[in-house]
Design goal:
Rossmann fold; 24 helices; globular; six-stranded antiparallel sheet; alpha+beta; 609 residues
Length: 609
């Protein structure tokens, strides 16, 4: 739905009736959205769907056309136009050193974007995304046909079919996302960060290459003291906050009782940027401690704070999230959509929404909490630590062999550029999870307003990744970092543990948490044995919807084993809430692409609790 769509067919030429895209005519869009055709010729069609205030930039001269979805920060429009047109000229003039030039540009520019450049003379097209791949993009490239879109469903619609990738489904059930370039569909890939996709009609060539890949091997700043590193990080962080702040409209920080969002609020405060903080209390009051601590943080900063009380998520919220992200957000997150509507009603538009995504990943230590001696033991630890269903359960569900799923995980971890096994884990934790989970969550937010996190500033992230792990232990560096941002916010309780960072209680709980991370499977079994895990009520509409989909949507049984589904429905109390929500996400996604109604009409107004 939202964002850029590009289709190129050099073998047959474009047949617009097949793609549902009439030349020069706006397609059907949801209320509040509109689609604009940016470029088209006999082989290619480029369009963009957006809403008022969604950041889309375009410029052109006699030779080139530039389309940029998203934002390049700290650059005015006139300078940006000059820079991107110059970049176009350099890119389309093949010469030695072109790749290194593009890489340097990509690392120097600060932004969250997808960039499309068109050479008007010969129809060549280049597509680039930012170094983190903030705007998730998917593409099909086969037999001289390219379909590229920010919306996964648009790719399947243009292809006219939806063939699911069984391994992609298995990885989603295992980890909550598919690894690397995999998507949920066979023949549709995820455009990896810092990618360059080039298209040439003259020789009907299309190729994808990587311009940059993070290597987290070193500790460049290991010779500096924690205080010096914290001071430098705080400066880079405040700069990132300033760059991302909206020039018009409200800057709203999604403030919880954790550390990351308070760091963002303090960073904006430190730059004198007007801001407001917003927090929600869910329908069960399960996050009451977060809600109360958020109010204390806002008060200590002297910024406006607004608290919102959420109703339970309903079937129509699930359906809305499905249409927004096509299955790439867990439906358990559907509760947040009413919060977004409340924010728009309360603050108006335009609105820049700040989150603390990736804060702890960058400033805290990220390594395996037990010894890993081989790539296989590392892959098994990644699965143990991050899994939703067990490897054996996923194999049974998807009718794949567990060894096949494990080998795919090993092969993917092997592809990381780091040589150290500990650092390969860090790559998975700080980059793989980010691009396939955090960015998909940000992308959900962007259907309502522009969403940013300063923790993904390249300069800040690169510096933080090169701070020594010894200083990140026990939140030592984070404590210094918060103190540099604001003298008081670090002394307010961390809501999850109801203790401030500097307290003995926090230190003891931190050490206990690390012990549980060594053997996560044992802890899960213990929690299950003691009935300390969160389950879904057998009378819940979540299970009722699962049953309904199982009976009415035949394609589900083509990809998921009916016997395992029957076991889940017969004994739901043996599975935790996260597992049930993930299973519902997959069955609903299968139904969304293959059945007339992913959710029955009688579920739309029911509460999913």
């Amino acid at each position: 739905m939202l964002g850029t769509f590009l289709i190129c067919d050099f073998k047959r030429g474009l047949n617009y009736s097949d793609t549902g895209l009439l030349p020069g005519v706006e397609g059907a869009c949801p209320p509040g959205f509109s689609r604009r055709v940016v470029w088209q010729d006999q082989h290619s069609h480029l369009s963009c769907t957006s809403y008022e205030h969604y950041p889309v930039f375009a410029c052109e001269n006699n030779d080139f056309l530039v389309h940029l979805e998203g934002r390049v920060y700290n650059v005015d429009d006139a300078r940006l136009a000059t820079e991107l047109l110059s970049l176009s000229q350099r890119l389309f003039q093949e010469h030695i050193g072109q790749t290194s030039f593009l890489t340097r540009w990509l690392l120097e520019v600060e932004g969250d974007f997808l960039l499309v450049l068109v050479n008007k003379a010969d129809g060549r097209i280049a597509v680039m995304n930012d170094v983190f791949g903030h705007l998730p993009t998917y593409y099909h490239l086969q037999d001289n046909l390219l379909i590229l879109s920010r919306d996964l469903g648009s790719v399947t619609k243009a292809l006219g079919k939806a063939t699911f990738d069984r391994m992609g489904l298995a990885q989603y059930l295992l980890l909550g996302f598919s690894l690397g370039k995999r998507s949920l569909f066979a023949g549709i890939e995820y455009l990896e960060p810092a990618s360059l996709l080039t298209i040439s009609p003259a020789d009907a060539s299309m190729k994808v290459s990587k311009l940059y890949e993070f290597n987290l091997e070193g500790e460049e700043h290991g010779h500096r003291s924690p205080a010096e590193n914290a001071h430098n990080l705080a400066g880079l962080f405040r700069q990132a906050c300033r760059q991302r702040a909206g020039k018009i409209g409200e800057n709203v920080v999604s403030l919880s009782g954790g550390l990351d969002s308070r760091a963002v609020a303090a960073g904006l405060w430190g730059e004198g940027i007007p801001l407001a903080a917003a927090s929600f209390l869910d329908h069960r009051r399960g996050n009451a401690a977060d809600f109360e601590v958020a109010a204390q943080v806002a008060q200590s900063l002297g910024v406006e704070w607004r608290g919102f009380h959420l109703r339970p998520p309903q079937g129509r919220d699930l359906l809305s999230l499905l249409s927004i992200k096509g299955g790439l957000n867990n439906l358990g997150m559907s509760f947040i959509l009413p919060f977004f509507h409340q924010l728009l009603e309360s603050f108006g538009t335009p609105l820049t929404y700040f989150t603390g995504d990736a804060g702890s990943d960058t400033v805290c230590v990220s390594y395996p909490h037990r010894e890993v001696e081989s790539l296989e033991t590392l892959a098994r630890y990644i699965i143990d630590r991050n899994r939703i269903f067990s490897l054996e359960e996923v194999a049974a569900l998807t009718c794949l062999h567990s060894r096949e799923i494990l080998d795919e995980t090993i092969a993917h971890v092997t592809s990381y550029p780091e040589t150290s096994l500990d650092r390969k884990y860090k790559h998975f934790f700080c980059l793989e999870v980010a691009t396939k989970m955090y960015h998909e969550g940000e992308d959900r937010n962007r259907h309502f307003f522009w969403s940013v996190t300063p923790f993904y500033s390249f300069e800040f992230f690169h510096y933080a990744m090169n701070c020594p792990d010894r200083d990140k232990q026990g939140y030592r560096l984070y404590r210094e970092f918060l103190a540099q941002l604001h003298p008081d916010v670090g002394g307010i309780d961390y809501a999850d543990w109801q203790a401030p960072l500097s307290s003995l209680k926090f230190s003891l709980l931190y050490q206990a948490k690390n012990l549980t991370r060594r053997r996560p499977n044992y802890i899960r079994r213990l929690r299950k044995l003691c009935k300390l895990y969160d389950t879904v009520n057998p009378a819940s509409n979540i299970l009722a919807c699962l049953r309904d989909q199982n009976h009415t949507c035949d394609p589900i049984s083509h990809y998921l084993d009916p016997r395992f589904l029957a076991q889940v429905l017969a004994r739901p109390q043996t599975f935790d809430k996260r597992q049930i929500w993930t299973l519902l996400t997959i069955t609903s996604t299968l139904a969304y692409y293959t059945c007339p109604r992913p959710l029955g009409d009688d579920f739309l107004d029911r509460d999913f609790v």
